[in-house]
Amino acid sequence: MARVKRGVAAHRRHKAVLAEVKGHRGTNNRLYKRAHESMMKSWAYAYRDRRNRKRDMRRLWIQRINAASRMNGLQYSRLIHGLNLAGVEVDRKMMADLAVKDEQAFAALVETAKQHLPS
Q: Which sequence spans correspond to the domains of the chain?
């Protein structure tokens, strides 16, 4: 039986890993073992941070809505409560976009929430 030499496959795999870690610092983009460790860690960070990005964006939207609603004389929590009582279903992403781009529409939302809040 013929002998299988694995150098070509290993070289191809090493090249792929080194291409993946281009831009990493130090020996993490030169030495295969360090590069592979760095690549695996970067994948773990990317997986984790895809979830964290969703949290960060929601926090940003809430901060923008809070700032805009306070300029219209209402706290964030009271705004959300008033909108829930009014049956308005606008998500935080859209409200933050309104707060930044269309201040009159956001002010109308705030007025709707104020009308449905108990005195």
A: 7-116
On whether the CB atoms of residues 39 and 74 are closer than 8 A, the answer is no
Given 3.40.50.720, 3.30.1360.180, 1.10.1900.20, 1.20.1640.10, which CATH number is that of 7-116? 1.10.1900.20
> pLDDT by residue for the chain (119 residues), tens digit each?
888 889 999 999 999 999 999 999 999 999 999 999 999 999 999 999 999 999 999 999 999 999 999 999 999 999 999 999 999 999 999 999 999 999 999 999 999 999 999 97
Cβ atoms 69, 80 nearer than 8 A: no
How many Å apart are CA 45 and CA 39, to the nearest integer? 10
Say which residues have a Cβ less than 8 Å from residue 26's Cβ, sequence separation at least 6: 34
Neighbours of 82 (CB within 10 A): 22
